[in-house]
Amino acid sequence: MSAEIIDGRKVAELIRNSVREDVEQWVEKGNRPPFLQVILVGDDPASIVYTGTKSKACKEVGIDSNTMVLQDTISAIELKQIIQDFNQDDSVDGILVQTPLPSHLSKYDVIETIDYRKDVDGFHPMNVGRLSLDQPCFRSCTPAGVMELFKHYSIPVKSKHAVVVGASDIVGSPMAVMLSRENTTGKATTTICNKYTRDLTAHTINADILIVAAGQPHLIKPEMVKEGAVVIDVGINRIADETTEKGYKLVGDVDFEGVKKKASWITPVPGGVGPMTVAMLMKNTLLAAKKSLYPG
Question: Of residues 22, 64, 93, 98, which has the active-site annotation?
Fold first, then answer.
């Protein structure tokens, strides 16, 4: 057998098209376009690429956006004051602080400064807490994108055994919560593994749904995967490859070529989960403008 490929690019395009149509209708009713304020601290090359991708996506769906670039020497007090100003600005619907941040800044302290009603990344403690209670909130974009993939491809989650490899607060932890708690797409029996997990294979081999977000190239080998499992690879790793023009290639946390022979469904890297993250950010920004989740 060979797994069916889950096409994240296609699904992300459908979501962006839907957001674009909703934005047009929103503006036709006399409302201004949604506005996303991005804050970039420093000149990390990857962060510059990510913020550029988000700005491009905003333009494509009719969302206005601005990226404020700050020196990496900015103090926590100065950065938090800037965020507070955007919190008070009624023309700003969503606020996104690009991570990672310079070492002298606390990510958690900075994120908690954002008004949770404008936290379109879904990282604020208020949104994380409401997520755990299956209450309306801004959901972390990457795991929310995975749930959308399940919905689009009619992949059943309820009553399945899901295993999440990776326990980050951006992907792994909220992913486990969504799988186990969400009433519509979720309700799986969920195991979450981390770098301290003993005998990882003992857990992954029993997974009906295996989601990997560990940041380790080709961590998951075929012998670690159950026959017919659904495999979602969230990892994006750059490894050297002299045969390519750039001198590197992008690979996931899963041995794609080997695992696809055992899985029923699998996401490629690139082109799987990655495009969904930005699409869900666009969806969250529109929700913020409409005040759909937090009225008033």
Answer: 98
37 in catalytic set: no
Which domain, by its residues, includes 57?
Answer: 28-118
Residue 244 is predicted with a pLDDT of 83
Ranges of the chain whose pLDDT falls below 70: none
pLDDT of the residue at 24: 98
- Is 246 an annotated catalytic residue? no
Instruction: List the catalytic residue out of 54, 118, 226, 283.
Output: 54
Is residue 78 within 8 Å of 92, Cβ to Cβ? Answer: no
For residue 115, give both structure tokens.
């008004």
What pLDDT is recorded for position 243?
83
The model's pTM is 0.95
Does residue 54 have an active-site annotation?
A: yes
Answer yes or no: is 100 within a domain: yes
Whether 109 and 214 share a structural domain:
no
